UniProtKB/TrEMBL annotation:
Highest rank taxon of the organism: Archaea
Gene3D superfamilies with a match to the protein in the record: Metal-dependent hydrolases (3.20.20.140)
The protein, known as: TIGR00375 family protein
Source taxonomy: Archaea, Methanobacteriati, Methanobacteriota, Methanomada group, Methanobacteria
Organism: Methanobacterium veterum
Length: 400
């Protein structure tokens, strides 16, 4: 069985997140997106754990089914679509959390149960674990790995290349952080497998691609996701699949669209060649701080100029949220009635947003939305003209 999974999101208890990040809304929007399994995020926050318990069915498998599926209008829309793989089944949840370790490296944790989350939180030395969904813990990567392994969980670096709080911001080698091999590495929005597979030490590590969503709407949730082949929908089967490198598809941003792809200024967002940035001592003429981009950071630590993909590595497919593409094509805001009407029509016609972006026949899309079909075709064929992001500013697609 192959499932679509987004394993890194945040709840309403994380900083700068939507108050709509609750289980019922996440579940309803996940099915419209086409996701089968979603990480809960923030699994150490006491109030969020209570909401998870109240909103899901008790489980002995480590995979949790939601009791309710959002408001009536959401339920009607979900029930009106016909997803060929999963029908109208509700999205399921797996316990996940992101924490910031002693070295300001963000770690993604995937846990076997709610009970394990309660047990682990009691062992985490943290002053803000009851206040912030993504807590800071007074442990290094190796100590945290030992704790998570003791509780049968999975651990790997979150958004591994971003220039603020990532493993390759702090270390030149993944083993300087863990002293061992992590279960996975999360690529982040500004990198893909072609970039990461230039680094020799990552050749035996599965990559995952997740949204890091702070709101539940489908232009955020599942903007990056994974196809994973599992034997059954249980935590142990999921863990076995990760260890067996059964991530069979990665989907996400063209890395040029990420906020930190190129080296650039965090104030004026100018892209600055790394050599010039170093001459300027990483200070822009405008006075802003220059942040080294993911492309240049990978260049520092890469062994090869071209990617060396191991045999198990799946293809990385570039996508963009459907509402963003519709907005781009029609020159209307993502949340406008105009854009949302077209988005709903596409989802109702093809079953889910993922179906539209990846599998729907282009000629069928073109019957009602010819310009939209052209841009989706360009994504599928990697022929888009993109102005790269830098300094915390997303890249832009330049349409002819």
């Amino acid at each position: 069985m192959i499932i679509n999974a987004d394993l890194h999101i945040h709840s309403l208890y994380s900083m700068a997140t939507s108050k709509s990040m609750v289980i019922s809304t996440i579940a309803s929007q996940s099915k419209l997106k086409g996701l089968d399994l979603v990480g809960t995020g923030d699994a150490f926050h006491p109030e969020w754990l209570k909401i998870i318990e109240d909103s899901t069915q008790p489980s002995k498998t480590g995979i949790y089914s939601v009791k309710e599926c959002g408001d009536d209008s959401q339920t009607r829309l979900i029930n009106s679509v016909d997803h060929p793989e999963t029908g109208t089944a509700k999205c399921k949840f797996i316990l996940t959390a992101e924490v910031e370790d002693r070295n300001r490296v963000h770690q993604l944790l995937i846990l076997p149960s709610i009970e394990a989350a309660y047990q682990i939180r009691e062992e985490l030395p943290s002053k803000n674990i009851d206040k912030e969904g993504r807590p800071r813990v007074n442990m290094n990567g190796a100590e945290l790995m030992d704790l998570i392994k003791d509780h049968n969980g999975l651990i790997g670096p979150a958004h591994a290349f971003t220039p603020w709080t990532s493993i390759y911001k702090e270390f030149d080698s993944i083993y300087d952080c863990y002293n061992d091999t992590p279960d996975f590495l999360e690529l982040g929005l500004s990198a893909d497998t072609d970039m990461a597979d230039r680094i020799e030490e990552l050749q035996d590590i599965p990559f995952i691609s997740n949204s890091d969503a702070h709101s539940p709407w489908p232009h955020r949730l599942g903007r990056e996701f994974n196809e994973i082949e599992i034997k059954e929908m249980t935590f142990n089967a999921f863990k076995d699949a990760v260890h067996a490198k059964k991530v069979v598809g990665n989907y996400g941003f063209d890395p040029r669209l990420g906020k930190y792809h190129e080296t650039g200024c965090v104030r004026c967002y100018d892209t600055i060649p790394i050599e010039k940035a170093q001459e300027l001592k990483m200070r822009c003429p405008c006075g802003g701080l220059i942040k080294k981009g993911v492309k240049d950071r990978i260049g520092d630590i890469a062994k090869w100029k071209e990617p060396h993909h191991p045999e198990f590595r799946p293809q990385y497919t570039h996508i963009l949220p459907l509402a963003e593409i519709i907005s781009l094509v029609h020159g209307k805001g993502i949340t406008t009635v105009y854009v949302q009407k077209i988005w709903k029509e596409m989802v109702q016609t093809f079953g889910s947003e993922i179906e539209v972006l990846i599998y729907a026949p282009l000629d069928k899309i073109a019957r009602t939305e010819p310009k939209l079909a052209e841009v989706i075709k360009s994504f599928r064929e990697n022929t888009l003209n993109i102005q790269s992001g830098s300094g915390g500013h997303y890249g832009q697609i330049i349409l002819d």
